[in-house]
Predict the 3D structure of the following.
Amino acid sequence: MRHSPHDARCAERCQDRPPSRRHYHPGRRAALALLVPLLIAAGPAPAPVTPASGSSWLTVMKRSLDRTALGRAGTTGQAVAAEAPGPSVDLAAMLRQGLVVRGSDLFRYNCRACHGAAGAGLPPEIQPLTRGVRATSIVVQKRVLSAEGGSVETGEAEEMARLAEAALRHRLEEGGAAMPPFDHVGPRETEVLLAYLETLSRVPDPRHRDAPLDLPAVQVGEHVVKGTCQICHDATAKAAAWRPADRQIPPLSALPERYAIGSFVDKARHGDPISLGRGRMPQLPYLNDAEMQAAYLYLAAYPPQ
């Protein structure tokens, strides 16, 4: 696509303006929505991907950004080496080839914003997830039975561990009173995510296997948007109805229409220097450029509903 000198000058001016003064570009998403499927067709066969829908988790929980730890705990705790985000990649190549992700990456996309790098959460509001993961261990269950003074029966420990894993899987799929559902995490992703959670929780007898997964870029974007962005950003409101002057958190639909992809990535990774009235946007430095680009393209190709 060829751009005029006017377009280039406009882009430069928009990059220098604060978010509240950037131009509204309703055609930007339409152009990207046409581009993305063409590039994906040359890459891995896409798994089922669905648009983001429903209210933000802050809305569901009736909490404001400045009075909650939800979505703000990602920078707490010491990051594990395997979590360190890699370098940015060429956008066209990423769309053609997809991205290789492991359990640690799925944890960053779906869990870290609230539970922190170590999975410890921020009690009392956000409970640690490591406790529930360790309960899936037969060895741990035997230790619990022994500490309680009862007889240590292998069959009983196995049954308790099985029930604990069933409860953990149900929580991932259906959510809970203070946790959204993650029904966009498929069986393959669940297996490698559980493997990483076992490592993070120091389970002595892990039963799941971590392995690299080749995912289309828009599917990685789906994980980032539904697992991180939608904690704060609503998927129901329309972009045209949102105004920066309202000092409210913009809906997901407004992001690819109001921001160029570079501005979107920078804002997401480094946070919002301007208060939005309900708190400042948290920084997401643990998500790399390619992953945030994937989130942007997912929003453009699959408009929120």
Observations:
- DSSP finds 14 helices and two strands in the chain.
- The first helix runs from residue 5 to 16.
- The first strand starts at residue 99 and ends at 101.
